Amino acid sequence: MFTARRRWERKGLQLGLLVLVVGGVFIVRQTQGELLAELYNGITRPLEVFQSEPNQQQYLKDAKVQELQAKITELESQNQNLKALLKYVEKEPKDVPTIPARVVGRSADNWWQQVSLNRGSLAGIQEGYVVKAEGGLVGLIDNVTSNTSRVLLISDMTSQVGVNISRTGAKGILRGDGSADAVLEFYEKVPNVKPGDVVSTSTYSSKFPSGVPIGKIKSLDLKRLPASVATVELFPPIRSLDWVTVNPKPPVVPAPENKDTQK
Asked: Which UniProt keywords apply (predicted)?
């Protein structure tokens, strides 16, 4: 019985040692796995950072290049607009003071009604001054501060301009239509006009100098009552104004006196 007891104790010891060995191997493997994982992460993490940094730098570089390209495009556009404005100014009479200004404000709600300019009374601008752009008449200064001024556009529905047809001299009133077109109401019932005729300011206008181009006739309605009307396509780029010129309002020319009444 003693011998059998010793045998079971020996087997129990062997079994315990086996459990310890297996457990130790499992623990060692787990520890080695964690160590290997940490070692792998320690090696690859700097490489991942190193690889991501060039991508971030390239992204920032591309963004900067795009920003510079956009600025270059904007400057080229401004340069072209200024060249066109300069050519237009050179055509103005030398005795007429010309003040260049840029559109700096425009409301979406009043897009076709008014714009704000970056020059005001300190630059010599006054209410009633005439505003032009490449193509012709733009509007009239109706409000002035020291450094800004506001333009009532000819496309405003309250705007009225005395005009005539350059080819025939037919006259009428041009009214704004809140768009790139305007409505011309003729004084005559059947005026001598046709599509394509150029419309310019009239000598009868007290607000604008005569002969300033405005647009061309787009379509006609000669059956309209009480007077014929035409749709006029405006020459100046009212939709996308940038640079303009401001000129003093024309002087009021007094009506000639009757010689018989002179003393």
From this structure: Cell shape, Coiled coil
pLDDT band at 56 (very low <50, low <70, confident <90, very high): low
> What is the distance between the alpha carbons of residues 9 and 14, in angstroms, rounded to a whole number?
9
Reading the block at residue 206, the tokens are 């007290």
Amino acid (one-letter) located at 14 = Q
Distance CA 71, CA 79 (A): 12
| 252 vs 173: which has the higher pLDDT | 173
pLDDT in tens, 77-97: 556 655 555 555 555 556 668
Can you tell me the distance from the alpha carbon of 154 to that of 160, in angstroms, rounded to the nearest whole number? Answer: 7
Task: Tell me: pLDDT of 30 over 90.
Answer: no
Pairwise pLDDT comparison (133 vs 61), residue with the higher score = 133
CA distances from 231 to 63, 179, 187, 203, 220 (A): 47, 11, 15, 21, 6
Q: Is 125 left (phi over 0), alpha (psi -120 to 50) or beta?
A: beta
**Size (the chain), residues:** 263
